Structure formats: C-alpha cells, structure tokens
Amino acid sequence: MGKLSKVAAVCRVRSMSASSNLKNVLIVDDHDVVRAGLRRIISREFEGLAFEEAGDSEELFDRLKDFPADIVISDIKMPGRNGIDCLKDIKGDHPDLPVIVLTAFPESEYGARSMEAGASGFINKENVKRELPAAILLLVLCARAIAAASGDLVAERIRAECGRLLEKFLYASGRARLVSKFLEGS
C-alpha cells in the first residue's frame, strides 16, 4: 500500500472525528459532472457535510456571501475570472478559509502561482480521487490541533510540525503540493 493509499485509509477511519470541524464545502467548477464527482469523492470520506456549488467566478462570490464555507475546492479555469484571481479576493475577504485548487494543467504552469495567491493546496485533477480526501483531512486535523493549543508557543510548534508533515507527505508523493498559509498564521 503506497503513502497515499495509507493516508486515504486513515481518512476513512478518522472521518467522523475529523469532520466535526468540517461542515460546509463550496465546490467551484464550470462542469456539472466534475462538481458532482468531487461531491461524491468528499462525501465518501466525510459524513454529514453540506455542499454548495458554483459554476463560475460570479456564482462563487454570491455563494460566499450566504454560505459559511469551511473549505473551498476550486478549479483554475472557469468562465469569468480565473481561479487564481478569485483566490486572491477570497483570501482578502476570508484569510483563514482554506482553498484547495484543482486543475488539469501541469503543476509547473499553475502550482507556484496558486500558492503565492494563497492556496492551501494544489492538486492535479488526475490525482484528485486519491489526494483530495487526504489533503482535506490533513488541513482539518492541523487546524484542530492549532485551535486546541494552549498558547502562542504551543500553536507555533504545532504549525511548524503540521507544515513539516504536510510538506513531507505531499512533496514526497511527487503529485501535489500543500502549503497552508493559514497554518503559517498569515
């Protein structure tokens, strides 16, 4: 069993406890079938979630006004403004809201730009079935640990350790990068 398979298994085992911090998921993609597939992938791993969907940048910002999203899963290429431009505005209004960017384009083309704009993660759509649940779980568990920290020093140590673990897992996989700006305290 590879690293990603082991983490996916942990996702299934821990989904009930981890999902207590994850209630509302906003999925942004201009293809209905992709949004439905993402919803199904996430629902298999995490129980009791509420989903909202947006097909373009205008719908994305309309949904964010009324839907208290705990995480946004967004495509880069969509009608209206692209996902990276939207990401900058999302982070301006909701700096602690995790956003995982998905794309069918190469990481070399969009990975660094997504992370610079504030993405919590970048996953190629080819790998989304394996990597998205693991990335969500890692974000939730690290956020829970930081929230439970008893002081600034403890929170900083947890942020550093979570960042190291996230980096080790995802960089070692060679398929995705997860650098969490909200874990860095920005």
Task: Give a short synopsis of this structure.
The chain has 186 residues and is an alpha/beta fold. The chain has seven helices and six strands. The model is unreliable at 1-19 and 171-186 (pLDDT under 50).
Explained architecture:
The chain is of the alpha/beta class and 186 residues long. The chain has one domain (3-177): Rossmann fold (3-Layer(aba) Sandwich). Helix content is 56%, strand content 14%. The chain is built from seven helices and six strands; from the N terminus they run H-E-H-E-H-E-H-E-H-E-H-H-E. It has helices spanning 3-18, 32-45, 57-66, 83-93, 107-116, 128-148, 152-173; strands at 24-28, 50-54, 71-75, 99-103, 121-124, 176-177. The protein has a six-stranded mixed sheet, sandwiched between helices. Strand 1 (24-28), helix 2 and strand 2 form a beta-alpha-beta unit. Helix 1 (3-18) packs across helix 6. It is globular and about 45 Å long. Residues 1-19 and 171-186 have low confidence and may be disordered.
